[in-house]
Write a structure and sequence with these properties.
Blueprint (H helix, E strand, L loop, with lengths): L1 H42 L4 H13 L11 H18 L3 H6 L1 H26 L5 H11 L4 H8 L6 H31 L4 H32 L3 H21 L4 H16 L5 H36 L5 H33 L1 H6 L5 H9 L5 H8 L14 H30 L6 H24 L7 H17 L5 H5 L6 H23 L5 H18 L12
Helix pairs in contact: 1-2, 1-12, 2-12, 2-17, 3-10, 3-11, 3-12, 3-16, 5-6, 5-8, 5-13, 6-8, 6-17, 7-8, 8-9, 8-11, 9-10, 9-11, 10-11, 10-12, 12-17, 12-22, 13-15, 13-17, 15-17, 16-17, 18-19, 18-21, 18-22, 21-22
Length: 555
């Protein structure tokens, strides 16, 4: 008997190990497919998220391939935290504040309007569906996705303000949609709904989520300042979004807003907390991580069709797809109507707003209206629907809601995403030159700060007057030319003596702090700071001082 038990135990362990090995093979295959499809998408000039979804859709229809099921907890805990954190980190806080009104109208008002419109259409198209289930469907498909917006929008040359509004909306709207989603699902499961409790939950989730995000970012900044090891610092930045997400979920606050607030807050102090070498290494690590996560997410979306098709009752697949087409059209139409009204009505009601912020061009409004791609949050929320209600009855229309949500993702991501490049060309939208003007101003201000620092160190005994004058000449020439050459080319000297290295380090640090001050007082955006700071970091590495942190930590 002992031999039989040992044999069975060994068989179970072997089966478990083979299952793990099979999952590892699937992951390796997905990564290889992601790299291959991304390369093809770049050659044929199609946004890679769309091409990956289509590639996953084609793979899902190939007979004999193993089914890949996307678990919602995997999306919410593994994929979303770093993606939201990184998207918020690279969002300019100044521009986010300046566009807070349109972002709020889209992230809150449009989500509620889309949820209501979709709920009415679903209630009319699906006989027997309750209002709670219909509202849950509306909340699922209402928020455009942060992953889709950042992965597609940044690759198209459109005005910066439109990019800011779209990114800001996609970062915040998940909080509104998920609170409404939880309330609707709770009503469907328990059979009761309390409006007051839902409003309190929304306010609580938003405020506490922001507080948690700022708190985690503050602790992250403290940990970065407390350690000198670059790899440890990068590990801290990778861990921070997951801590913010888990803390937000544990107290039933908005984990989405926790990650968004944390990423925005940490960006304001990251420049003075780590060395140039760590900053460049962290950027490379984060870029690779986000690329892999985005690629795997989009191909997993396409792979879900096979599993979803089998979950729908026989004979209902076609009608449900037709209902999904109507729901997709409703979501697109509500956005097309909401965006111009949200721009017109506040200006009609306020003369001060009309004077301060004139009506934007209709071409820009149409582009914002048309850019509403849904993505992984929509699919994950649909898959997270409970299997049964509190009475043990299967959750009504669960399979239909999931398939309709998948249809909306395909319709918006593929149809709207593929049509964006020709629409932008047709509308003759151009990038504004505001950032270039800010960059010129920032370069001039940084060079002036470096010259002031040279005047301070010229009297110290560790540097010769000849070395000071050689560096001064380079900065004076930059002020005369202000060409687009990089700071690294302009400020690097051929001599590598210790005194020259220290002198160059002092001037680079003065430039960096001057740029940070310009960002803090709103003169330049975070994007300009990041662009010029990267050049300074490369110069510091070239000088051999890339491991040094600034003498003072930025507040």
């Amino acid at each position: 008997r002992r031999l039989v038990r040992l044999a069975r135990s060994s068989q179970k362990r072997f089966c478990a190990s083979m299952k793990s090995l099979h999952q590892l093979e699937v992951i390796i295959m997905l990564l290889a497919v992601v790299l291959a499809l991304t390369t093809i998408a770049q050659k044929i000039r199609i946004p890679y998220p769309i091409f990956l979804v289509l590639g996953g859709l084609a793979l899902g229809l190939v007979p004999g391939l193993p089914a890949v099921t996307l678990h919602p907890d995997l999306v919410f805990l593994v994929f979303l935290p770093p993606i939201l954190w990184a998207a918020a980190y690279f969002t300019s806080l100044r521009e986010f504040r300046q566009n807070l009104r349109p972002i709020s109208l889209l992230a809150v008002g449009l989500v509620l309007a889309t949820s209501a419109g979709v709920a009415f259409v679903a209630h009319a198209l699906l006989p027997g569906i309750g209002w709670a289930e219909a509202i849950a469907l509306g909340a699922i498909v209402s928020p455009p996705d942060a992953v889709s917006a950042t992965a597609i929008g940044k690759r198209l040359r459109i005005p910066r303000r439109i990019v800011t509004i779209l990114e800001g909306e996609s970062l915040v709207n998940d909080a509104t949609a998920l609170v409404l989603y939880r309330a609707a699902v709770g009503a469907a499961v328990s059979g009761s709904f309390a409006l007051g409790h839902t409003l309190f939950e929304f306010v609580f989730a938003a405020l506490v989520g922001v507080v948690i995000g700022i708190g985690v970012a503050w602790l992250t900044r403290w940990a970065l300042c407390a350690t000198e090891d670059g790899f440890t610092q990068i590990g801290v930045t990778l861990l921070a979004p997951y801590i913010a997400w888990v803390c937000g979920e544990s107290v039933h606050a908005s984990a989405v807003l926790a990650c968004v607030a944390g990423g925005l807050y940490l960006r304001q102090s990251f420049s003075g907390a780590v060395s140039p070498a760590t900053r460049l290494q962290a950027r490379a690590v984060w870029d690779l991580l986000i690329f892999i996560l985005n690629g795997v997410i989009f191909i997993l979306i396409g792979l879900q069709l096979g599993a979803l098709r089998d979950s729908v009752p026989p004979g209902q697949f076609g009608p449900v797809l037709i209902a999904g087409a109507w729901v997709s059209a409703t979501a697109i139409l509500v956005r097309l109507l909401w965006v111009p009204l949200a721009a017109l009505i506040p200006r009609w009601l306020s003369a001060k707003l009309r004077a301060r912020d004139p009506m934007p061009p209709w071409s820009g409004l149409f582009l914002i209206s048309w850019t509403g791609m849904r993505g992984i949050v929509t699919l994950a929320a649909a898959l997270a629907l409970p299997v049964a209600t509190s009475t043990g009855v299967p959750f009504p229309f669960r399979s239909e809601i999931i398939l309709i949500s998948f249809t909306v993702i395909l319709a918006t991501l593929v149809l709207q995403g593929l049509s964006l490049p020709p629409i932008i060309r047709l509308l003759h939208l151009r990038e504004d030159d505001g950032l270039e003007q800010e960059e010129t101003l920032a370069r001039e201000h940084a060079a002036t700060a470096a010259l002031n620092r040279l005047d301070q160190v010229a009297t110290e005994n560790w540097v010769s007057l000849e070395q000071v004058e050689r560096v001064r000449l380079r900065y004076l020439q930059r002020l005369e030319r202000l060409t687009k050459a990089s700071l690294a080319e302009e400020t690097t000297l051929s001599s590598t003596t210790e005194s020259v290295q220290r002198l160059q380090y002092e001037t680079l640090t003065a430039e960096r702090m001057a740029l940070i001050d310009l960002r803090d007082n709103g003169t330049i955006s975070d994007e300009v700071l990041h662009r010029l700071e990267q050049e300074l970091d490369v110069a510091a590495l070239h000088l051999g001082v890339g491991e040094r942190r600034p003498g003072r930590t930025h507040r």
